[in-house]
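Hi all, long-time lurker, first post. I run a small reading group and we've been trying to get comfortable going from sequence to structure in the token notation. Rather than ask abstract questions, I figured I'd post a concrete chain and ask someone more experienced to write out its structure so we can walk through it together at our next meeting. Sequence below, copied exactly:
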Amino acid sequence: MSTTFSSILTKFVLLFEPISPRFVSFLVGRKLKEWKNKGLIDGYKTKTKRIGKFHYKIYLDLDLTSKQASRILRDTLIQALKRIRR
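-- Answer (accepted) --
Happy to help. Here is the structure in token form:
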């Protein structure tokens, strides 16, 4: 039974894979909009390009002040260190 389910799931995923860049752009754009509303960034542009099956190139253009950039780098470093400790 599980092989039938996995077979159906695989076919389903492969059917929608070519439209994935739009979905990825949507998710990234949603998060960046949230950051903009919080004042973490001043502006953004995003573009996702499919370069192969399940391979994408995501272009991000962020408008940041030096204070915003420092905050993002600091928060990213703290999160990375927390992951290493686990």
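A couple of things your group might point at:
The chain has three helices and two strands.
The mean pLDDT is 83.
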